[in-house]
Specification:
Shape: globular
Strand content: 15-25%
Number of helices: 8
Distance between the termini: 14 Å
Helix content: 25-40%
Bound molecules: D-xylitol-5-phosphate, zinc ion
């Protein structure tokens, strides 16, 4: 099954509740929440207080993408704020194995993210401990950037590795995802697509529906 994770970073922050409801009522099961600390990435976005507030207006899976140095420091509080899935960057964790255990102990699903230039092989030792691998298809920190084409080959390579090892780990792709490139991302092996600008620019409900219709066609084998 293919999953759409609208990224709230692309939304109008003065109208968060209607924006979130539009995606959820149109059928998006996930909401992607980009937490940035101004150190791991240049920008600062939002954190636990905002996530705890919006938890009241959505029962979507809260998929928290931590673009934060040493995110283990915040795992327990992030779970308390309402995160269902906590995804940390391999590049931001000195003790990645420990951070993944912290996420599991907190009772959340665990994800690990890789920047475009970080090889898949850096996850060999932990692949069987995570529910999801996030492959960044732009350099993290900002919405509205262009998809980096070489990351397509990383999706294929990760999919091959997972199949070889008999793992059902999800592959999430984040950055520059559009209705136009979604198909090739599925064909490469992705099953969760994050979309910020492509969902929230214009009409978020109509954009969500357009993605989900496309997903249904791919699921039915009729792209
Ligand atoms: C970027 C964030 C993304 C961002 C995607 O660092 O991780 O989730 O919101 O935005 P678009 O879909 O506009 O590239
Ligand atoms: Zn993200």
């Amino acid at each position: 099954m293919y999953i759409l994770a609208p990224s709230l970073l692309g939304a109008d922050f003065s109208r968060l509740e209607p924006m979130i409801r539009a995606t959820s009522e149109a059928g998006a099961q996930y909401l992607h929440l980009d937490v940035m600390d101004g150190a791991f990435v240049p920008s600062i976005s939002f954190g636990m207080p905002l996530i705890a507030s919006i938890r009241k207006c959505s029962d979507q899976i809260f998929d928290v993408h931590m673009m934060v140095q040493e995110p283990g420091r915040y795992v327990a509080d992030m779970k308390k704020a309402g995160a269902d899935l906590i995804c940390v960057h391999q590049e931001a964790c000195i003790h990645l194995d420990r951070t993944i255990s912290q996420i599991r102990e907190a009772g959340a699903m665990a994800g690990v993210a890789l920047n475009p230039a970080t090889p898949i092989s850096t996850l060999d030792c932990v692949l069987d401990q995570v529910d999801m691998v996030l492959l960044m298809s732009v350099n993290p920190g900002f919405g509205g950037q262009k998809f980096i084409p070489y990351t397509l080959e990383k999706i294929r390579c990760l999919k091959k590795t997972l199949t070889k090892r008999g793992l059902k780990t999800h592959i999430q792709v984040d950055g520059g995802v559009t209705l136009e490139n979604a198909g090739e991302l599925f064909e490469a092996g992705a099953d969760i697509l994050v979309a910020g600008s492509a969902v929230f620019k214009g009409d978020p409900a109509a954009n969500t529906r357009a993605f989900l219709e496309l997903f249904a066609r791919y699921e039915a084998g009729r792209p």
